[in-house]
Write a structure and sequence with these properties.
51% of the residues lie in helices and 11% in strands. It is α/β, with parallel strands linked by helices. α2 runs parallel beside α3, α5 runs antiparallel to α10 and α6 packs antiparallel against α9. Bound molecules: zinc ion.
Length: 244
């Protein structure tokens, strides 16, 4: 808690115990137990550290729920964290290998049990369509290494779906990664150049591809927000679903 306050992030996270997907239910139960104990310690210490700071200037603190794909464990975790009254809540421990329908069921359960006036943050999910599916189930915040990891390995997010830039057919392709993208990379470089850099393991290639993938996701979120405002989110999601 002290480290996070020192780096002055807007939102701090509790320490949690993240189980592995292959862990038994008993092990995941232990992770829930430990996560709740730590959440309480984090909350108490975080409150104490900020007790002289005016409320509107305080760093926020989010609690992280665990419980794998087990509804009873998720319910227990949510109940125990809600009692501590965090500024927002995270859905932890998903995207580890569980079936997508199980992931979405847990997200729906979490949304139905968490306070409606607090943001919900789905940790570790970065696939474009998965993000939209989560938004349609009430998730507000995301983070993931996936867009940059994919970029470094040559998988590029585009308006026509995923593009494997290392494919031989892009070797002399002078067009941008995505002609519908307004990012710095698409305005200045060709597919052939990005492919060349990545295939030579040049770090600048990884940076350019990462820049584009992050830009793509930020733009996707902007469009999603606009679509929600215009009451057209479902159409927007279906459009993305066709290419992803
Ligand atoms: Zn771009």
């Amino acid at each position: 808690m002290e480290i996070q306050l020192n780096i002055n992030s807007e939102i701090a996270m509790c320490l949690d115990k993240m189980p592995l997907y292959e862990n038994s239910k008993q092990e995941i139960k232990q992770a829930v137990r430990k996560t709740s104990i730590w959440a309480k310690k984090c909350k108490n210490h975080h409150d104490a550290l900020q007790k002289n700071i005016p409320k509107n200037k305080r760093q926020l603190l989010f609690g992280i729920t665990q419980g794998g794909i087990y509804k009873d464990l998720r319910k227990k975790s949510i109940k125990e964290l809600k009692e501590l009254d965090f500024d927002g809540y995270c859905v932890g421990g998903l995207g580890l290998g569980e079936k997508q329908k199980d992931e979405y069921k847990i997200i729906e359960l979490q949304k139905s049990l968490l306070p409606n006036n607090k943001p919900i943050y789905l940790m570790g999910i970065g696939d474009p369509l998965e993000i939209l599916e989560a938004i349609s189930r009430g998730i507000d915040i995301f983070d993931s290494r996936m867009p940059t990891q994919n970029a470094r390995r040559g998988t590029i997010f585009t308006s026509n779906g995923k593009l494997k830039i290392l494919n031989k057919k892009y070797e002399s392709d002078k067009s941008p990664i995505d002609k519908n993208c307004n990012c710095f990379v698409c305005k200045n470089y060709s597919r052939a150049y990005i492919k060349f850099l990545l295939s030579q393991d040049e770090s600048v290639g990884k940076e350019l591809a990462s820049y584009h993938n992050l830009y793509y996701l930020q733009d996707l979120i902007k469009q999603a927000k606009q679509a929600i405002k215009n009451n057209k989110f479902k159409d927007f999601k279906n459009k993305i679903k066709k290419v992803y």
